[in-house]
């Protein structure tokens, strides 16, 4: 499907139109931008995140040449239904959403919990995903993955005490490089001023956390069967999903590429967005 000349192509995430699609008794909220036609890049978001949590510097770089779709999982933001109890079920919902839009082949850009969902999606539907980007994430059953719960609650407390956004603590090092990068990231997330999403509810957030804990404690998936080109990226000091798990993914997925950014945490790709965005865009355009 090509975009007609009288329909301008939107390449700024701040201006991406909000849309919905209803399937299997749930309405999914999503945004799309970039030139339509060909294989879309579907973005899989992190724990507690809504459509408003994507860094526009990364989305916009990819949307320059690609049809980009971001979406809210069931029970999050403007999507209806209930947040699933397991990552595997979240992958089923993602499949439901993608097929409702009529796609049988996609590229995936994922971050954190989104990367766990993306892996489960590829395990179940290996032919659906052409190219895969896994950032700030780890494999099912990965070492210390289940500790994310304790780290998350501790950092939310620290953020509350300093009246900061929890992402400043969870995603970035609390040092001279990390603190300004954190503030700049949070500010970029506010660039969209109209038609913003509503934040996740407390119960939905706790359900997602428990799902990650179960994922961390379950038997590993066989990632040696993955055949799609895969790009893995993280910071060198990820406290949420330990950086060693990115290396673990790299070992398990044959032919994958690994980028570890120095002096950065879980949000390393956001701290180094000016370096990472063109790399990710080039990888996805191949």
UniProtKB/TrEMBL annotation:
Statement: the UniProt record of this protein carries the keyword Cytoplasm: no
One of the Pfam families matching this protein, by short name: Abhydrolase_1
Keywords recorded for this protein, A-Z: Hydrolase
Domain of life: Bacteria
InterPro entries xref list: AB_hydrolase, AB_hydrolase_1, AB_hydrolase_fold
Domain AB hydrolase-1: 41-270
Residue ranges crossing the lipid bilayer per the database entry: none
GO molecular function: hydrolase activity
Protein name, UniProt field: Alpha/beta hydrolase
Natural source organism: Nocardioides pocheonensis
């Amino acid at each position: 499907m090509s975009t007609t000349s009288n329909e301008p192509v939107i390449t700024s995430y701040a201006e991406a139109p909000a849309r919905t699609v209803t399937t299997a008794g749930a309405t999914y909220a999503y945004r799309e931008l970039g030139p339509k036609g060909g294989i879309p890049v579907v973005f899989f978001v992190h724990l507690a995140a809504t459509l408003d949590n994507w860094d526009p510097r990364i989305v916009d770089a990819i949307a320059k040449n690609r049809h980009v779709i971001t979406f809210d999982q069931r029970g999050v933001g403007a999507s209806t239904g209930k947040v699933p109890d397991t990552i595997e079920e979240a992958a089923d919902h993602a499949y439901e959403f993608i097929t409702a839009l009529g796609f049988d082949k996609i590229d995936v850009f994922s971050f954190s919990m989104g990367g766990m969902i993306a892996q489960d999606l590829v395990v179940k539907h290996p032919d659906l995903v052409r190219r895969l980007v896994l950032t700030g994430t780890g494999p099912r059953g990965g070492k210390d993955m289940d500790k994310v719960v304790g780290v998350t609650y501790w950092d939310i407390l620290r953020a509350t005490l300093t009246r900061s956004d929890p992402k400043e603590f969870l995603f970035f090092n609390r040092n001279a490089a990390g603190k300004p990068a954190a503030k700049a990231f949070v500010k970029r997330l506010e660039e969209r001023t109209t038609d913003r999403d509503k934040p996740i509810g407390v119960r939905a957030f706790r359900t997602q956390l428990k799902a990650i804990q179960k994922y961390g404690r379950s038997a590993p998936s066989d990632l040696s069967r993955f055949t799609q080109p895969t790009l893995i990226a993280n910071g060198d000091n990820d406290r949420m999903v330990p950086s060693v798990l990115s290396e673990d993914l790299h070992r398990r997925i044959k032919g994958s590429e690994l980028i570890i950014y120095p002096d950065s945490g879980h949000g390393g790709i956001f701290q180094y967005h000016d370096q990472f965005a063109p790399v990710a865009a080039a990888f996805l355009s191949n």
